[in-house]
Write a structure and sequence with these properties.
The chain is an alpha+beta fold and 185 residues long. Helix content is 41%, strand content 14%. It is built from six helices and seven strands; from the N terminus they run H-H-H-E-E-H-H-H-E-E-E-E-E. The longest helix is centred in the N-terminal third of the chain and has 18 residues.
């Protein structure tokens, strides 16, 4: 039976991983799992692989891992399929390189031969980042097309924010930015 990391266990695992990284220069998956409790090794291993892919954690030559961004416990993964993770990375890069953008421009600039980003997905990503206060705009240009921008102060680094069921997690700052249901308020 595979044990999953619920929110409380994930927060405790992150606290342990951060403490080991801070005090010993890195953590080993087995050590973190042993401290956390029996059976969590595979879940911590899967989470560490995702965090390494997102550059929140760096693998070291001695088999340990070092946390690069200390803060709140990151989500377990991007909740959507891997294609959408690549789309989020491409959208984030395109936003950082543009002064301002429409949905169509952003989707076009974020699309590659491997990953097609549709305007509807760009719109959902922008809506979540707008609710979190990272993207501003939605104002119409002279031709009536809505336009957004990523202010320099919100271009927090190379890691794209993760859109979760509950909100937006900034992997560069290491913290949850806003609850998605707050935008309705």
């Amino acid at each position: 039976m595979r044990i999953k990391l619920n929110d409380a266990v994930r927060a405790e695992a992150w606290r342990i991983m951060c403490a080991l990284s801070r005090d010993y220069g890195g953590y080993r998956i087995g050590t973190a799992a042993e401290i956390l409790g029996s059976g969590y090794g595979p879940a911590i291993d899967a989470w560490t692989r995702w965090l390494t892919n997102e550059d929140v954690v760096r693998a070291r030559g001695d088999g340990s891992h070092h946390i690069m961004v200390v803060g709140d416990a990151p989500p377990l993964c991007r909740p959507l399929a891997e294609t959408f993770g690549a789309a989020q990375r491409n959208l984030w890069r395109a936003m950082q390189m543009s002064r301002s953008f429409s949905l169509e421009e952003l989707a076009r600039d974020a699309s590659t031969d491997v990953v097609e980003v549709k305007p509807a997905y760009a719109q959902a990503y922008i809506a979540a980042l707008t609710a979190a206060g990272m993207v501003v705009g939605g104002t119409a240009l002279s031709n009536g097309v809505p336009c957004w921008r990523l202010p320099p102060s919100q271009s927090t680094g190379p890691r794209p924010p993760v859109i979760t069921k509950l909100g937006v997690f900034d992997l560069n700052r290491g913290r949850e930015l806003a609850a998605l249901h707050a935008r309705a308020a």
